[in-house]
Amino acid sequence: MNIAIIVAAGSSSRFNFGTPKQYCLLHDKLVVEYSLELFTKNNFIDKVILVVAKTQNNYCASFKEKYKLDAIIEGGKTRQESVKNALNYAQKYQPQNVLIHDAARPFLNDEIIANAFRSLSDYAGAVPVLAHNDSIRRIAKEENIALNRDELYSVQTPQIFSFAVLHKCHNLAKKNNYSDDASLVEDFNYKINVFNGCRNNFKITYYDDLTRAEYMLQKKFNYKIGNGFDVHKFTNISKNSYIFLGGIRIKHDYSLIAHSDGDVLLHSLVDAMLGAVAAGDIGDHFPPSDAKYKNMPSTEFVLKAMEILAKKNAQIINIDSTIICEQPKLTNYKLKIAKNLANILGIDITNINIKATTTEKLGFLGRGEAIAATTSIMVKQYE
After folding, report:
1. Would you state the pLDDT for residue 240?
2. 114-173: per-residue pLDDT in tens?
3. What string of DSSP letters covers 237-269?
4. How far apart, in whole angstroms, are the C-alpha atoms of residue 171 and residue 91?
5. Distance between CA 112 and CA 233 in Å, rounded?
6. E strand or H helix at 377, and its extent?
7. Which end of the chain is more exposed for a tag (fewer CB within 10 A), N or C?
8. Where are the beta strands (DSSP E) in 151-220?
9. pTM score
10. Confidence of residue 32 (pLDDT cuts 50, 70, 90)
11. Residue 275, CB half-sphere, CA atoms under 13 Å: how many?
């Protein structure tokens, strides 16, 4: 089980406005609602907990029912105390992982969440970071020196952790002034991984930032379509074999001839993703002549394609795939494949359609010599 904790109990002292920033109206909803909506729809997240100050209950009275939240709990005097309160509440569910997110970051997206889970791996936690474009100086008392910006990164949220590790560290912490959970965990000698953040995922801190957010919601975007096709030949080796489709292992009488795992569905998906943003094809990024891709799971190709979409400010709207073969029969696998794709991509399963068909015994596919797949996707790409 994975849970998300949205921290919304801050007083917004730097915002310099009567209403805390997380409860300001941003177009048609409050700032915090953008994160609530995303987390409650994301397939990686099982439960969502919102942490608010006691004086802020009037802002979020309808949130629990509107967004099907697991709980709205009272925060503490500091951000650290607020997170600890939420962890103590969530302990009863025995979750495996937890994401901590600032309510004042309304432009979180599914790709960042998927990258967070991918980056956790064997680490205690992982955080999104951004390199600095500007020169950096340290100015303190008599000191005024330039710093090497290549070694300095800004840290964003959501930060992801092993629940057990984060809860333990919060309970053991003697200080109460940590600015984020990663620094707290590192103080107990746990290792934190980093992954690329997103410049749009900025934190509303000053009132001018709200104007920037308003502008971003009005910025122009285009819908683009990508198509992909892949085919792989079956071997002559029979019995006790299997193939992969959409990352799902399926028993079959024959295996496939392929450099990687031969997952035609994922290969066609990757080509469609790359095609939608004019980023070449799967062979450009994962050439079969490169030994490091030998027997590699095709899910790795999909994750790389997701990173490319994120860098090009594009997000998937929907996916429509067709698998073409005489055997194996795929009626009982289509839903499993769709669910797995939803988990990999971090999008709602209602935006994924998997079909299967035959060629009525015609051609090499009809003779059972191979299996093929075609995929079409639509993406929204911001300028």
Report:
1. 61
2. 999 999 988 999 999 998 888 887 787 777 777 777 778 899 999 999 999 999 999 999
3. EEEEEEEEETTEEEEEEEEE--SS---HHHHHH
4. 12
5. 36
6. strand 370-382
7. C
8. 153-155, 159-162, 192-196
9. 0.65
10. very high
11. 18
